[in-house]
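Appendix B: a complete holo record

For completeness, this appendix reproduces one full record from the ligand-bound portion of the collection. The bound molecule is flavin mononucleotide. The inputs are the chain sequence and the ligand SMILES; the output is the full three-dimensional arrangement of the complex, encoded as structure tokens. No fields have been trimmed.
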Amino acid sequence: MADFYRVTVAEYERRARALLPEAFWDKMFGSPGDPNWTTNANNEQGYTSVSLRPRILRAVDLEPDLSTEVLGQTISLPVILTSTGHHTWYHPDGESATARAGTAAGTIFALAMGSIHGMEQVAETATGPKWLQLFFLKDRDIMEDLVRRAGSAGYKAIMLTVTKPATKLPELSPVRGPNYPEGMIPAVEKLGNFAAYGERGELKAGVLGAMAPNVGWAEVEWLRSLTSLPLIVKGIQTAEDAHLAVEHGVDAISVSNHGGYSLVGARATIATLPEVVEAVDGRIEVLVDGGIRHGADVLKAVALGAKAVLVGRAMLWGLTVGGEAGVREILEIFREELSLAASYCGVNEIRNVDRSLVYTGHPSAAAPLSDLAVRS
Ligand SMILES: Cc1cc2nc3c(=O)[nH]c(=O)nc-3n(C[C@H](O)[C@H](O)[C@H](O)COP(=O)(O)O)c2cc1C
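The structure of the chain with flavin mononucleotide bound, as generated:
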């Protein structure tokens, strides 16, 4: 990879920013200092409120085992490439490239419902484990068909995103306005997963118009009943909803505020993670996304009970800079940083870390040390 040298996610952010039009950058990733993106900033800053408690002189391996299992799938590191739409906006090779990078790194790629490359096309080129992300649509026949197609194409799970009441636009910069930069209007006919349905029914109004209002747990139950694939609900942010997810037969939760896209003023997801983990009490798996920019962030999240983290922006910055190779590099950056952080903390196996590995500044996790299961 002559064009790349191993750097940091922050460096990839800088390089990606230089390549993309400014208005597009602000629309997709948030304008620094813009009050409407405070939730994204909260997510990033949340990780600085959690500090590591390194155990020393433990004669650890220089190459700790970073592998873990998520919903029965072994992955080589606890970092999953998560669903974001329209990857060809960032690189012409689109979702196929991102998915191949996940396969090469031995991790899961979650394909967004609003992807340019459809699920079958992606499955042909990337043989590793894949999930399909869905928003709830008004047209249940299409929902049913999407789920059926995911099963046939070998996808390993369905991930339902529930971070915003559908059909309401996310809160976005009032300065830049809610409109997409010219030439970048997301059109249904360009979305691979919807090509088969043409201009059917509500799809005429675009994907946003096709999304169902008033989605509740009954809809989750309906989706649950459709498939034997594991069902992940992405967007849980409270202990109360975590309990409900367990009661409604969900297999995993992702603690997520949609990377700060939906609710201005939401709490950092890493701060919410402990209350969700406590509520779930090992009954289902918990994942987290939002603000993960460094391998040490991954270690903190796993220590606080996440099986793995999902990364959105970091993946897209890698894709922008270098297509498949760029996303692979992002995953290798996370792997190296995580490996180093784990070694410094006396960790041999990432799957065995627990809360004793972190101090936190968050009230929900500020148990006295005597209450924590400090490993000997
Ligand atoms: C540009 C962009 C597009 C996104 N599109 C989707 C989407 O189509 N479906 C979805 O479930 N989440 C979407 N998300 C949210 C991500 O899946 C994820 O929750 C978020 O990016 C995690 O935060 P991070 O970007 O700080 O890693 C999007 C996020 C970004 C930044």
